[in-house]
Design goal:
With 338 residues, the protein is of the alpha/beta class. It has helices spanning 2-21, 83-93, 95-101, 109-117, 152-159, 202-214, 232-238, 241-244, 252-261, 301-306, 323-333; strands at 31-33, 41-43, 46-48, 73-76, 103-107, 126-127, 129-132, 143-144, 147-149, 169-174, 192-197, 219-222, 247-249, 265-269, 276-277, 288-293, 308-311.
């Protein structure tokens, strides 16, 4: 019986290779043709070689870019135990794994359209893998190396969003570089730089990036102790802004190098008695850098020692504001042309 099964399997493989060589698409329960062409197919048990010219990749490793599906085919995955679904879920929850793979997960057709349609993602906004609900269309502006149809519970698992009502699309995108001064090269000459000094809440970070982008700031520096900008909460709060805003993880020495190179005056949000009012801080400055401190600990000693204090005029009785709120006001008051 085992010998017969083995012979049957080898016959199926020979048939598949022959069909590919003849240019005929190969049918499977995991794929459904939407146009002609194709070299590889995928199902829940793994990738099956159809064209010997194609390299074999693990479906979850960085080098594969998860671009191994047949062009012109949509796959279908129905189990949360599938390797690609588990890969997505691990990307969502594990920062080290995101950095190892060089990719991140973005959920929601609206955010995906903003990210990919806006051209902010390196490589023309192409997703490595795109999960779609059965009734969902490919989001506007989005292209993908693999398109996978899946039921709602599978998409929620892949997105790490079990508690939301509905997720219609979730994609794996390449992670933009954030290491060192070189990551700011796309910003050109910087006249407005936001520096985050130990911001811990991903929601606050995402909100600040989104606000800085909306108000025309040039770049964001992530100083030591600042959380991951590609955390799923930060991604949702930024509405895709982390792809369109140049960002770099910098040491204080590197921040000093950037501000000196571009002639930026450094301010830190600190309401001291001698603080400059935010609505006048930009007067006479060719460019400036605004440093915001963490929610619990405030500004670091380095920030307090090397930056001029700036404050929001507040006639009311409250002494402080949430960092995302205060940062938004400061970004507006200190924007270009203010």
């Amino acid at each position: 019986m085992a010998m017969a099964t083995s012979q049957c399997f080898r016959a199926l493989v020979r048939h598949a290779i022959g069909a590919s060589a003849a240019g005929r698409p190969v049918a499977s329960r995991a794929t459904r043709p939407v146009s002609s062409g194709g070299t590889l197919r995928y199902h829940d048990r793994g990738f099956h070689r159809i064209n010997p010219q194609q390299p074999r990749h693990h479906p979850w490793c960085r080098g594969a870019r998860l671009a191994t599906s047949a062009a012109g085919y949509e796959e279908r995955i129905t189990s949360t135990d599938n390797a690609t679904v588990k890969h997505f879920a691990k990307l969502v929850r594990n920062r080290g794994y995101r950095e190892e793979c060089g990719s991140i997960v973005v959920a929601g057709s609206g955010i995906l359209s903003e990210v990919c349609g806006g051209g902010g993602e390196a490589g023309g906004g192409s997703a490595r893998v795109l999960f779609l609900a059965d009734d969902a269309c490919v989001p506007a502006g989005v292209t993908a190396s693999r398109i996978v149809r899946a039921p709602e519970h599978v998409i929620k698992k892949a997105a790490g969003l079990q508690s939301v009502d509905r997720v219609d699309a979730v994609a794996e995108l390449s992670m933009p570089p954030v290491a060192g001064v070189a990551a700011l090269e796309g910003a050109g000459r910087i006249t407005r730089l936001l520096a985050l000094d130990g911001i811990q809440d991903p929601g606050n970070l995402g909100t600040l990036v989104r606000t800085a982008l909306a108000l025309g700031w040039d770049a964001v520096a992530l100083l030591p102790g600042t959380c991951d900008p590609y955390n799923d909460k930060a991604l949702r709060a930024a509405r895709g802004g982390v792809f369109r805003m140049p960002m770099a993880r910098l040491t204080w020495e590197e921040l000093e190098e950037v501000t000196r190179r571009d002639g930026l005056r450094r301010f830190c949000a600190e309401p001291t008695a001698d603080a400059t009012a935010a609505d006048t801080a930009a007067t006479g400055s060719k460019g400036l850098c605004l440093v915001l401190g963490s929610e619990g600990q405030g500004l670091s000693d380095v920030a307090l020692r090397t930056c001029e204090p700036v404050a929001i005029p507040m006639p009311g009785e409250m002494e402080s504001l949430n960092v995302a709120v205060a940062g938004g006001i400061l970004l507006y008051l200190m924007r270009r042309g203010s």
